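Objective 1.3, modelling of assemblies. Example input:
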Amino acid sequence: SAVISQKPSRDICQRGTSLTIQCQVDSQVTMMFWYRQQPGQSLTLIATANQGSEATYESGFVIDKFPISRPNLTFSTLTVSNMSPEDSSIYLCSVIGTGSTGELFFGEGSRLTVL
Amino acid sequence: AQSVTQLGSHVSVSEGALVLLRCNYSSSVPPYLFWYVQYPNQGLQLLLKYTSAATLVKGINGFEAEFKKSETSFHLTKPSAHMSDAAEYFCAVSDTGGFKTIFGAGTRLFVKA
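Predicted structure (tokens):
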């Protein structure tokens, strides 16, 4: 298993500002995943963050809007840039468990409200 | 392409009654299938997973799911609901290793006293 800590747990932001979410894992992992969960909806993968290389973004998500850093094997950040009310969501950091059977471990999420 | 369909966005049962949450998947390769639970204001946690071993999979909190290839289904059941089971449940599929996990829309379970 993996223990994942996210900061902040929640925040209220003003339109046009940017916010950086931090994700810390208690063990070294190759890949970290960032998901978005819009109100009342399921999870959508934003990007996969690999240490030492640029993040891989899913269709509909771009680096200018969601820049990601991955400075080492236990830490990543996701920035939500130039926020609008449509960015109000829960942002979740996730890693794959050891053993390669594919289960994901999640942080408790960062709930952002953009006014 | 893989996909997951969860039938019913909301399910309501009485305490002590059977819980049945439905999930159908589409996958071009033998899938890995998962059920996750999300309690209010928390992240997701794994309930159970199918990875081509036994077709009947037992998970935490008394939940189990059966993989039926012929029906492309992976329904989640629990014989007797408890108030603490009230949560959002997500079915998910990935091809290998979890690198591209696709989540269903979720089913919110309500448990009535």
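The longest strand of chain A covers residues 43-50.
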